[in-house]
Specification:
- The chain contains four helices and two strands; from the N terminus they run αβααβα.
- The protein is mainly α and about 90 residues long.
- It is globular.
- The two termini are about 20 Å apart.
């Protein structure tokens, strides 16, 4: 997100994508606290346009692996929250 929108990078990289890491990013937090701090938001609470990302992945025919690169999977409740957020992203 610091160098372009994810959906743009997906289209640019196309079939060269081997794996997708799922995380969110807040430009507002990054502007105030530094670029790395922008990753400190939960899925669906940042600036990623998940509907556009999912459409771009569909447009390039991506059917590979994804990895959730977010904290929260260390408890039953945290894992359920991540799962629920991923389901919302998938249906966007």
């Amino acid at each position: 997100m610091a160098y372009g929108w994810p959906e743009q990078w997906i289209k640019i990289l196309g079939n060269r994508l081997a794996k997708v890491h799922i995380k969110d990013y807040s430009r507002k937090i990054a502007d105030k606290q530094g670029k790395g701090a922008g990753f400190g938001v939960k899925l669906l609470e940042g600036d990623v346009n998940w509907a556009a990302v999912m459409k771009s992945l569909d447009d390039i025919g991506y059917h590979g692996w994804t990895t959730v690169e977010m904290p929260g999977g260390d408890t039953k409740e945290g894992l359920k929250d991540l799962c629920d957020r991923l389901v919302k992203i998938q249906s966007s």
